[in-house]
């Protein structure tokens, strides 16, 4: 069995019996408490770990040789590297255009394509490669009482003659969907990022293949660091990137509550150092990109694809093995600041390049570098005033700009949240109620932004307990 360079779906196996298997909320398996602590701090399981010591996930780019139905031997079939070629930027963009077109045709031929659109670059590049077609159904969504994000998707779809649906994510949608979502993602990810489940009833009639742009923003951008950092400096950068707000505090609290040996922060650093040791790349930018692609993409991004996969097959051009191999040969100076995607869209679809880039609105791909100039100072000031006015008009619940706000803020959300945090008996027996109540109270009174992640992870552990014990 050969796993892809970036797997789009976890494949589980029993480490003790050496057999591939389905995920199960298994009472007979011992819990991997250390890995669970790391999970709560970062939002995804590290390496091949899960909730259980004997349940592992197949590693990326690995060949598993089978002896009957058992895993006999495993070997790495490909490794991330940095081997930049002596090529021009123009040649790089042209090669990307050819490869992107080839991958897309191979993956979408004969399919009724469903294209999620946003105001960013990844989905816009996908709209570019698909060309003008009424056979494509595009959609976008925005929060109820949130920023008007659908205007970008609507404009892109109109420019390409796509069929289009603008959807709204309603307040409090999570609670009637959360147990279904827990069964789909096996509680291997928290529940504040998979807002697509709120509109899943729309998917069946849109088409039969999701064409998704995940991971383009990682492959085609720099990592925001110097290229020659020491191993210790790289480790500190990775810690900063993967630790969520409040995650370190929650991980340490659980580590102490479960009486695990040693220090949580030290153990986490040692785990990251172990994972980094498998990446033989000197260039820091490329090394961090490889780390994220090896461990973050399969264990967080791919886990969150489960809602799409529950309805139709998914195709991810930026996950493609050929795309990964191509990236390893591109000079870092060309990957920085999304240059390749920007130039590709300008070259192939000028009309799409003229549509405002959401982050720099009203600027587009031709003039976004002017956004922070004096010329656009009034625009930036007006956007800030408008946000503040909307906050006051909408009252205590405020303008919805983040996933957790639509799920945790407001009376009904709070009632449901408390039910899962304080009334699920297997969870309250496993996690001290004093610990849970402390983080819940900090969310309410100290800093809701900082403590939204710990709250979401505690909610995830509650659902894990509920499903594991059939409560």
Can you describe what's shown?
By secondary structure, the protein is of the alpha/beta class. Helix 3 packs parallel to helix 14, helix 5 packs across helix 21 and helix 20 runs antiparallel to helix 21. It has 21 helices and ten strands. Strands 8-7-6-9-10 form a five-stranded parallel β-sheet, with helices on one face. Helices cover 47% and strands 10% of the residues. It has three domains: 65 residues, no CATH class; 211 residues, Rossmann fold, CATH 3.40.50; 88 residues, no CATH class.
Shape: globular
CATH fold annotation of the largest domain? Rossmann fold
Give the % helix.
40-55%
Q: How many domains would you count in the coordinates?
A: 3
Provide mean pLDDT, rounded: 93
**Order of strands across the widest beta sheet?**
8-7-6-9-10
Head-to-tail CA distance between termini: 36 Å
Q: Key terms for this structure?
A:
471 residues, alpha/beta, Rossmann fold, 5-stranded parallel beta sheet, 3-stranded antiparallel beta sheet
Q: Short summary of the structure?
A:
This protein is an alpha/beta fold.
Please give the structural blueprint.
Elements: E1 12-14, E2 19-21, H1 33-42, E3 55-57, E4 62-67, E5 70-76, H2 89-108, E6 113-116, H3 122-130, E7 137-143, H4 150-160, E8 163-169, H5 178-185, E9 209-211, H6 216-219, H7 231-242, H8 247-257, H9 264-276, H10 284-301, H11 306-309, E10 313-315, H12 321-327, H13 332-335, H14 339-348, H15 350-353, H16 377-394, H17 403-408, H18 411-422, H19 425-430, H20 433-445, H21 448-468
Parallel strand pairs: 6-7, 6-9, 7-8, 9-10
Antiparallel strand pairs: 1-2, 1-3, 4-5
